[in-house]
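note to self: the first set is below, dont mix up w the second
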Amino acid sequence: MMGRYSSLLSYCLLGCLAAFLMAIFSPVNAQRAAPLIVDHNCTDITLIPEAGIINAKTVLHIVYGHTSHGSQITDGMTGLVGFANGGGLGLSLAADIFAWNNGGSDGALDLHDEGMYGDVGYYPDWVNETVDYIENNPDVNVIVWSWCGQAGDKYVAGTLYSEYLAPMSQLEIDYPDLTFVYMTGHMDHYADADIKAANQMIREYCIENNKVLYDFADIECYDPDGTFFEYPDDDCDYYSSEFGPLLGNWALEWQDSHPMNVDWYDCNAEHSQPLNGNLKAYAAWWLWVRLSGYGINTGIEDIPTPFTLGQNFPNPFNPATTIKYSVSVKSRVSLAIYDVNGRLIDRLIDRIIAPGSYVQSWDGTDTSGRRVKSGIYFYRLRSNGSEQTKKMVLLQ
């Protein structure tokens, strides 16, 4: 396990600090110069410096609204306290360093769990709950809502923007000194296309508008070794295709091959497995540390960006196009093509590559080698906790 942490995402910490330096000085100000995306690339808890954890506990006052699925984060955070105290993953930090409670007593992180009733799927209730909480708790500076199972439904109904994205943005305007954390919905294999399309819409909105996103669904698509599962369910079952047979459960398989209390810890993870709760907790602490502004005014300058993604050429194109990109450090890189509904069309790259500049072509076919239709497509490059997305047009 420790070998994984020494090699996987060793550059993630610098990427996070670079994001801090790009932000406005106020660590929790909603007006950001760049998006802050926390996903499976930010689940290495061993890379978080102790000073960053302490800084988060000093700065942040968080309220979290959720129902059952959202409790995976806080239940995972609860279990993490004892796991870290026992030296899990080789951690050697102050006792109870990851403690949290409502009010931040005894040096804990101030996090009011279920301070707002319900989840973000219940509109307009969640908006009214948010306003009521803010008005009655003037010290709060971070607002987090999770989904239960409604994100895909809202996408199909055409209300995901009007009942989630637009109200979140309006709250940011109304309360500019607060940070509002966007979230994707949990994976749902039985509505695979709908939830993937909804989550993709949320991701694109956050990237284009410099929002803060905790990518709940993305974390459910990868095991701790970085293995990608294209068709998972929220309980960590994975399937061969959208309508294909069950192949296994990635969390249970990983847990069975790694010692408990050394590589992972038992915790409640509603509708899922303990390992999923572990990863959700690790990513949450990455989020808290990054929101606290740790790294600002530390003397760190000129941190390189993890990668650059160029515009494809030609664009529009037929029958093929070329995508140029560069990577500044050795890292796992993913380059994939999606349609306008967020469905994966083709995965061009998913491997560890050395620093340098590269050229990748796409011939307009899907993962099965079939020619796709004319239209708008998106290509996304991911590496070390960062991602860039660009649009291209295929004309047959």
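second set (the one i keep forgetting abt)
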Amino acid sequence: MIGCGHQTRREFIGASGSCFAYLSSVFAISGSTALSRWARPRADVVAQEAWGRLEEVGPGLWALISTPLTGDYTTLSNGGIIAGRAGVVIVEGTASPEGARWMAERAVALTGRAPTHVVVTHYHGDHARGVDGFGVEDPPAIHATPATAGLVTSGFDAASEPERARPWADVVLIDPGAPTGIDLGDRTVAVVPYEGHTASDVVIDLPDDDVVWCGDLVWNEMFPNYLDAVPSVLSASVRSIVDSGRGTFVPGHGPLADAAAMSTYVSILDDIEGAARSALADGRTAEVAGEAYRLPDGVSEWTLFNPEYFSRAIDAWMRELGSRD
């Protein structure tokens, strides 16, 4: 979820649309280079809209790559469609009901059946806000950890927003302590719990297909949002995902990643840690350190959703490191 200024947690969870105006500044930050890079698919495209595209990453597997740099934020986060003989999984609830509805329609077009399951990787609005768009007639089961479900539903008033509350009334709770599976007949979707980006994240792993959906634990060609992050835990989780040895990584934001891109991402996580440690040693504030921070050579063109993301990441590290003293 994009962070805008200093919101309350309720505002942050419940009003994903309130932040989207911040993206109007992305062009000033990243310019046309980032936009042209995002516009280049890494796999065959089977559907394209202003806000994103579906790329085929394997038999019965499609990754949603959202492209908010165009100025259309219907989906905003990445996601996907996973088809099996006995069901269809949608990864993420998207940022809006319209985005979820589009994903459901694409599932029907590509697989011949409506989605039966939706896995929400964490509570941020750009991943969870749209779930009521999947419909009321034979709706898919919404899967989320107890922490994710609790944080989502604390962000709105169920009595006054019944449409938003409806999909979460019968949420299927994911075990936060061990991997679980969703049986699709001819394939099993592994839902693996992690922490780091938030207090409760999951990834969707398909070892036999060499693909993993990483949620916002992983960003590619975009600097990550540390709003709720515990930086050392985030770093460890990312390394664990890399160690899985998958060939294709679907990040929470940005284009598809391979092993080389993941190595670059790890190096950036390490670099921001180093910047925070230096700031602590020098007595500089996170704000001052963030303003001075520059991405390493070779990735200086990475995009920022928000110009405060460097300071936010350094502040998260400084708070964690300071708490150890």
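remember for set 2: DSSP finds ten helices and 13 strands in the chain.
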